[in-house]
Amino acid sequence: MPAFTYSRKPRDSGTRRKQFPPVAAGWHVVEGIEAKWKAPTEKQGPQYLWLRLDINEGEYLGRCLFATFHLNSTNPTAREIAEERLEELMTAVGVDDLKHTDQLLNKLFKVRVAIKYSEEYGSQNEVKAYRPLGTATKDEPKVDSQPRFPMNKAKAAAEAQPAPAPAKEGEDDSDLDDKIPF
């Protein structure tokens, strides 16, 4: 085995690893990369399901999002929300009967991300909803077949008018300039 040495760099005890700004709120295409049951903390209560999602396209390609499902929470409202979101996720990845967390991985789907703020951590992303890939969502841009600008409507109306007949030989075409709509 090759020799390898590394010396720790002195660091200010108050510095943390680089913080990434949150991704924009809205719908993102993601892939489930890792899922596991995590040990509880005093603040979070009982064991919970943790999921790492990697954004698969667009401006935030490669960025990570994390989702938690507090399915064993002692709070009935938190447990109900976790169950609803897990069922949305199962629908998004095409799983009817979840027997192992690996069934949630290596599949593309959409998530709706919100930005939440806390005094302790600042701005962070929170996954709020899950949808199958190819599903239309409310806040995604829609293609509009109608012109958006009045100038385009005027141009379309002018193009719809029949073109003036060409002048015949020997006719005076000086009055044709008055019929041009622009």
Give a verbal description of the structure:
There is one protein chain. The protein is an alpha+beta fold and 182 residues long. The protein has a domain of 107 residues: OB fold (Dihydrolipoamide Acetyltransferase, E2P). Helices cover 16% and strands 27% of the residues. The protein contains two helices and five strands. A five-stranded antiparallel beta sheet has the order 3-2-1-4-5. A hairpin with a 3-residue loop joins strand 4 and strand 5. 12% of the residues are buried.
Looking at this protein, list some descriptive labels.
182 residues; alpha+beta; OB fold (Dihydrolipoamide Acetyltransferase, E2P); 5-stranded antiparallel beta sheet; 2 helices; 5 strands
Strand and helix map with partners:
Elements: E1 26-38, E2 48-55, E3 64-69, H1 76-93, E4 108-118, E5 122-132, H2 150-160
Antiparallel strand pairs: 1-2, 1-4, 2-3, 4-5
Largest sheet: 5 strands, antiparallel
Instruction: Figure out the total of helices.
Output: 2
Low-confidence stretches: 141-156
CATH architectural name of one domain: Beta Barrel
SS class: alpha+beta
The separation of the N and C termini measures: 80 Å
CATH C-level category of one domain: Mainly Beta
Cross-sheet strand order for the largest sheet:
3-2-1-4-5
Order of helices and strands: EEEHEEH
CATH topology descriptor of one domain: OB fold (Dihydrolipoamide Acetyltransferase, E2P)
